[in-house]
Amino acid sequence: MHIQFNSKLPSIEMTIFTIMSKLAKDNNAVNLSQGFPDFDTDPKLIELVSRAMKNGFNQYSPMQGIMELRERIAEKFDALYNSTYNPDTEITITAGATQAIFTIISTFVNADDEVIIFKPAYDCYEPAIELHKGKSICVQLEAPHFKVDWQKVKALISNKTKMIIINTPHNPCGTVWSKEDMLALESLVRNTNIIVLSDEVYEHIIFDGKQHQSVCLFPNLKERSFITASFGKTFHNTGWKMGYCTAPAELMHEFRKTHQFNVFCANHPIQIALAEYLRAPQHYLDLSSFYQNKRDFFLKAIESSRFKFIPSSGTYFQLLDYSKITEEGDVEFAIRLAKESKIASIPISVFNVDKLDTKTLRFCFAKKNETLEKAAAILNQI
Ligand code: PMP
Ligand code: GLN
After folding, report:
1. Cβ of residue 120 lying under 6 Å from some atom of ligand 2
2. pLDDT tens per residue across span 145-180
3. Is 171 touching ligand 1 by the criterion CB < 6 Å?
4. pTM of the model
5. Cα-to-centroid distance, 33 and ligand 2 (Å)
6. For 63-97, what is each residue's pLDDT tens digit?
7. CA 21 from chain center: how many Å?
8. Is any ligand 2 atom within 6 A of the Cβ of residue 167?
9. Which atom of ligand 2 is nearest to the CA of 98?
């Protein structure tokens, strides 16, 4: 028999990341689609995890995460941004940034609440809003610079606006917001009850001497903001699904009511290991130059190709404009490249309003140089 039900997400399909990674595997293509490194995480960190397991940290951690790890995170905010978060009441360890984002939306978004998001947008925001019967209010940013028109944003704010979701450095664009952007946002939300969800998973991957503009640097933003972060992105282990979020105590108190019933707590031995590993800030402070070298290596290698690009300013993604090559739609072109040319990428239209197609593909350069060389050899032939 067929069980009858009404889908809560009728228009949602399989994520593009799953589709493209499978296509890469099935076609034996170089996979620069889904964002994950093809090199391993630091053996020292693996050793710390296995030591924690051998030492018996194999049961639930405290619901909020272990105190030692929350303390290391608080110290990091203090050192990098001169910003104080109370590890007891304002930091929670999560099962990756995705779970933090889902939980924040689930905790605060009610039926008919409006949530402003900037497109192209990372794909986990809208389904979570829809599941809670909220409404996504989308601001489409224009390629290739993806600058925000703050007057347009202002016009979209109403008494129904519950939340604004921002993401800098930005996936998939590789852009970063300036201090002026943050000040503009700050002035729009001042004296409102709007909550800001600031997705900062790429905070440590920012190039050319630019400074990451965390919401915690702006008092009128910090007082209403959640910051979400991902250890997977920072320490090359996306499969471990570890992250955290920070927020002022009142907001975090409410968050934890939901968090304790959708995961209760995150992986315990990995928390023990990360608490130790974070004692050496070099592990994340070196990340920008590590990835800037990869970006430069990749871009130099495709310099004579027919793709057009503006070098990424942050994240480990590079957008390439293929409008000189073909008129094909980006999804069609990405599929053909994976099947015929043996290189997988992510078409950007899937993250845009009405699947706006700007003939742009996203390539992940968190790869060994030999993988980037292979990819470049293919791209130069297209
Ligand atoms: N936000 C953005 C912008 C991302 O690119 C990702 C993917 N890492 C996430 C959130 C989710 O992070 P995690 O893998 O830790 O769940
Ligand atoms: N964040 C990764 C990316 O942008 C994908 C993670 C996922 O597959 N959900 O490629």
Report:
1. no
2. 999 999 999 999 999 999 999 999 999 999 999 999
3. yes
4. 0.97
5. 9
6. 999 999 999 999 999 999 999 999 999 999 999 99
7. 18
8. no
9. 9
